[in-house]
């Protein structure tokens, strides 16, 4: 049975916007998610407490994870050396 190539489908409107955001120019050194193009990151800390009005202690569970992908249940690390695909 011969292999047949299927032409790529047109991107949905949502996917077209995501691709446009990922290709947009950004300042040097700005971190951007390679999956969704978001620039919001979060760090999850477990066991932190307040002492003398300041947050102290805690174990870092996740560091520099894309906030938008995390809301969808996807763990996408945002590292500055990764470029959007």
List keywords for this structure.
elongated; 85 residues; two-stranded antiparallel sheet; 2 helices; 19% helix; two-stranded antiparallel ribbon; alpha+beta
Descriptive notes:
By secondary structure, the protein is of the alpha+beta class. It has a domain at about 35-85. The chain has two helices and four strands, in the order αββββα. It has a two-stranded antiparallel ribbon. The chain has a two-stranded antiparallel ribbon with strand order 2-3. The chain is elongated and about 70 Å long. The model has no long low-confidence stretch (mean pLDDT about 85).
Topology:
Layout: H1 13-23, E1 41-46, E2 49-51, E3 54-56, E4 59-66, H2 67-71
Antiparallel strand pairs: 1-4, 2-3
Offer a concise description of the structure.
With 85 residues, the chain is an alpha+beta fold. The protein contains two helices and four strands.
The H/E string reads HEEEEH
Question: What value does the average pLDDT take?
Answer: 86
Q: Which structural class do the helices and strands define?
A: alpha+beta
Number of strands: 4
DSSP helix fraction: 10-25%
- Percent of sequence in beta strands: 15-25%
Main beta sheet strand tally, sense and closure? 2 strands, antiparallel
Shape call: elongated
Unreliable stretches (pLDDT < 50, length at least 5) are none
First-to-last CA distance: 33 Å
């Amino acid at each position: 049975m011969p292999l047949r190539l299927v032409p790529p489908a047109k991107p949905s409107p949502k996917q077209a916007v995501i691709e446009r955001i990922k290709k947009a120019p950004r300042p040097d050194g700005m971190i951007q998610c390679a999956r969704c193009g978001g620039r919001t990151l979060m760090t999850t800390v477990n066991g932190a407490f307040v002492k003398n009005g300041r947050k102290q202690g805690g174990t870092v569970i996740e560091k520099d994870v894309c906030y938008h992908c995390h809301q969808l249940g996807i763990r996408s690390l945002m590292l500055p050396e990764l470029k959007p695909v």
